[in-house]
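Limitations

Structures in this collection are predictions, not experimental determinations, and the ligand pose is part of the prediction. Treat each record accordingly. The example that follows, with nicotinamide-adenine-dinucleotide as the small molecule, is included so readers can see exactly what is and is not provided: the inputs are given verbatim, and the output is the predicted complex.
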Amino acid sequence: MTKIVLVGAAGRMGQALVRCAQQIEGVELVGAVEHAEHEALGRDVGTLAGLEPVGVVLSADLREALASADVIIDFTVHTAVPVNASLAAELGRAVVIGTTALDDTEQMLVQKAADKVPIVWAPNMSLGVNLLFAVSKRAASVLGPGYRVVLDETHHVHKLDAPSGTALRLGEKVAEGTGVRFEDVMVHDEGGRQESYPEGSIAIRSFREGEVVGDHTVSFENVGERIELTHHAYSRDAFAMGALHAAQWVCTHRPRLYDMQDVLGLRE
Ligand code: NAD
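Predicted complex:
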């Protein structure tokens, strides 16, 4: 049985994780943490997630919550991630990070924590998206640099970062496939306002609409044809299920920084 502490447990993903944790075998929710100012501290997280009580109350004390846990799952904000990962490393607990938009220093601190404990960090935990990463890289390597590549990402209006972490990772995979440096060719077009993009670029168009959970399309276009690879996430449960799967996996691996390609055996 994998004993899990959720950090950011009252958030949108936190609530999905509480619901999904009740549906699968082999995981036990032993703690749920929020920041110290959260209004729901002390309440049962099952009730917060729209279920019957699950016997775990929302707390602000991650150290105490980790005492009886194997792994933390972090869906918070980027600034909180290094703090949580460092504490997990100090206490020898594995980590799954779904939080996106970490800056270079925050990523370096996560990497440092991964010297001590196994960490899975992935901007998108869904099985389907991780398959899309692998398929997009393969498509790019077969089609070559002559094809124009556009990545469209659409998310709900509450999303803070753009482009999405998933779109950036997709762009990296396409760049790996065509053998170019992503940083050299990436163009970000917020709202898809530009009419065209420079030759050889990988353009990411970000759209924010209503409550869209997450849509990503990679299109490759050349004279007379276009190929589109699309993933639609209908519910946050797709990410929550992936994160719970990763939590079970990471506890059985040695200290290192992993991503979902490792968890799903998709790494080449
Ligand atoms: P949200 O705002 O609904 O939830 C975040 C929660 O974290 C909030 O409840 C907030 O109070 C809490 N929080 C903030 N600081 C904290 C701290 N120091 N300690 C504990 N809790 C703290 O956001 P969300 O939609 O649940 O997304 C959370 C993160 O996960 C974002 O970075 C988002 O981009 C990312 N995300 C990743 C995936 C994936 O598959 N990897 C999927 C969806 C969202």
